C-alpha cells in the first residue's frame, strides 16, 4: 500500500507541475495594432523616426489572415520605428526573417504549401523587432493553420 500511495503522490505532483507547461500555446489576444484583411487599412502609419540606440517599436501590423489554410497565399506588412534592423515572424513551426522594404517598413508574401495533419492547429505567433544593438520589441497573437 505504501508503494501505491508514494507512486500516486509522485504522479499527482508531476501532473500538477506539468499542467501549465504543456505544448499547447496559452491563449493570447490580438494586439490593438494588428489589422487583418485583403488590403492595408486606410490609416496605415508612417514610421516613427528614432535614434539607433532607442528601443525598437512595432507601430502597426497587417496580415492577410490569422487563420491560414493550406495551399493559400499568406502575406503581412509591418511599420516599425526607423531604427529597427530586422523583423522576425515565428512560432514553434517556422521562422520568417521579414525583408525590409524601407526604413521602418517590412513585408513578406508566401504560399503555404501542404502541411502534415499534425501541424494543422492553433499557434502563438510572435513578431519580434530588433534594433542594431539587439534590443527587442515583441508582440504575440493567435494564429491557426487549417
Question: What do these coordinates show?
Answer:
With 146 residues, this protein is mainly β. It has a single domain (25-145), classed as Sandwich (Immunoglobulin-like), CATH 2.60.40.10. It has one helix spanning 2-18; strands at 34-36, 58-63, 67-68, 73-80, 84-90, 95-98, 100-102, 105-111, 122-131, 136-145. The protein has a 5-stranded mixed β-sheet with strand order 1-2-4-8-7, with no helix packed on it. A hairpin with a 4-residue loop joins strand 5 (84-90) and strand 6 (95-98). The longest helix is centred in the first third of the chain and has 17 residues, at 2-18. Mean pLDDT is 86; it is low at 1-22.
Low-confidence stretches: 1-22
Q: In CATH's first tier, which class applies?
A: Mainly Beta
Give the name of the CATH superfamily: Immunoglobulins
Please bin the fraction of helical residues. 10-25%
Just name the CATH architecture: Sandwich
DSSP strand tally:
10
| Total of domains | 1
Main β-sheet: number of strands, strand sense, barrel status?
Answer: 5 strands, mixed
Relative strand content: 35-45%
Give me the strand/helix succession. HEEEEEEEEEE
Separation, N- and C-terminal Cα atoms: 48 Å
Describe the secondary structure blueprint for this structure.
Blueprint: H1 2-18, E1 34-36, E2 58-63, E3 67-68, E4 73-80, E5 84-90, E6 95-98, E7 100-102, E8 105-111, E9 122-131, E10 136-145
Structure characteristics:
single chain, 146 residues, 1 helix, mainly beta, disordered N terminus, 5-stranded mixed beta sheet, Immunoglobulin-like
Amino acid at each position: 500500500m505504501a508503494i501505491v500511495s508514494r507512486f500516486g503522490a509522485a504522479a499527482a505532483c508531476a501532473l500538477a507541475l506539468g499542467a501549465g507547461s504543456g505544448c499547447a500555446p496559452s491563449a493570447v489576444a490580438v494586439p490593438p495594432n494588428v489589422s487583418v484583411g485583403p488590403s492595408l487599412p486606410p490609416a496605415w502609419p508612417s514610421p516613427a523616426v528614432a535614434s539607433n540606440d532607442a528601443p525598437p517599436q512595432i507601430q502597426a501590423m497587417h496580415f492577410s489572415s490569422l487563420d491560414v489554410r493550406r495551399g493559400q497565399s499568406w502575406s503581412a506588412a509591418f511599420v516599425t520605428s526607423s531604427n529597427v534592423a530586422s523583423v522576425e515572424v515565428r512560432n514553434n513551426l517556422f521562422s520568417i526573417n521579414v525583408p525590409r522594404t524601407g526604413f521602418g517598413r517590412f513585408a513578406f508574401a508566401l504560399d503555404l504549401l501542404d502541411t502534415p495533419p499534425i501541424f494543422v492547429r492553433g499557434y502563438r505567433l510572435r513578431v519580434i523587432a530588433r534594433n542594431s544593438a539587439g534590443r527587442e520589441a515583441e508582440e504575440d497573437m493567435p494564429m491557426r493553420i487549417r
